[in-house]
Amino acid sequence: MANRIGEKIKLTSIDELLCVPETVGTVELELGLISEFANHPFRVVDDDKMEELVESIRQQGILSPVIVRPNSKGGYEMISGHRRLHAAGIVGLKKIPAIVRDLDDDEAVIAMVNANLQREEILPSERGFSLKMKMDAMRHQGTCRHDVDKLSPVERKTATIVGEGSGLTGRSVQRYIRLTELIPELLNMVDEKKLSLVNGVDISYFDKEVQKWLYEYIKENGFIKPSQIDALKNHTNLENVTQYTLIAILNDALPEKKPCGKVALSERKLDKYFPPHFSARKREEIILMLLAEWKEANYPEVAE
């Protein structure tokens, strides 16, 4: 085990921690001493990107050390570098270069989230849960505390601070965090782009039973329209509806389909009704005039 005395460099801010030169405070740690960050919201999957990382490590080694903090069991907890640790294990490395930092729980959460939000590809669920963790940590620290009476302005200000550094507005942060209120099945649909982020956010405000019924509806029909979600939002007694009633509300809210297909009138068909010397233009004028009379007699409310 690496000697911790003199190996930990305490920085004055999380931003400094993430910008440390690779060679400063680097030690070699055994892979088995490093555990995953508690409730880590980012997935480590064996996809094409992981194969590329594994090949890079096999050819060049680990160029950027991971960041860890000591845990209570004599080992270390990963802050930044879960994918590198996984790839190192696949390659067969016994040790990995690491920078050890003394961080409390809130500092560790903020550092972990900030480091991972720099990745190119992040699922909506990963972004939502990580931003929620960061917001909770910053509230606990008091860094998002403001002397404002109403909750909503505070929440907006907090969300704006949480989004700083990751290119997200406060409103975007709030939307991603709302996704964490979805049942897992619907959240997976958002990740798989079978349900839009906007629709997912709207559905997140419904209780879990309604969400379950909506999931079953989407799975069976393959879609849900914004007009259908709006119909549920505007329903005056949604908490007492049954699944059957909910389906009826959704179906009633579907936009009416316009008649499909083309109407073809061949010359042979029209020859039965017009003298041979009538031109095509004359025939068209008469047909349109008769249609106008029919519409006026039967459907006067239809707009021109």
How would you describe the overall organization of this protein?
Helix content is 49%, strand content 8%. The chain has helices at residues 14-18, 48-60, 82-91, 105-116, 124-141, 151-163, 170-178, 184-191, 197-203, 208-221, 226-233, 243-252, 267-270, 280-298; strands at 26-30, 34-35, 66-70, 76-80, 95-100. It has a 5-stranded mixed sheet with strand order 1-5-3-4-2. It is elongated. The termini are far apart. The relative contact order is 0.07.
Descriptive tags:
304 residues; 14 helices; 49% helix; 5-stranded mixed β-sheet; alpha/beta
How many angstroms separate the termini?
Answer: 83 Å
The helix content, as a percent range, equals 40-55%
Name the average pLDDT. Answer: 83
Contiguous runs where pLDDT drops below 50 for at least 5 residues: 1-23, 145-152
With helices defined by DSSP (H or I, 4 residues minimum), what is the helix count?
14
Radius of gyration: 31 Å
The gross shape turns out to be elongated
Strand count: 5
**Which structural class fits the helix and strand makeup?**
alpha/beta
In percent, how much strand structure appears in the residues? 5-15%
Strand order of the largest sheet: 1-5-3-4-2
SSE order: HEEHEEHEHHHHHHHHHHH
Sheet with most strands? 5 strands, mixed
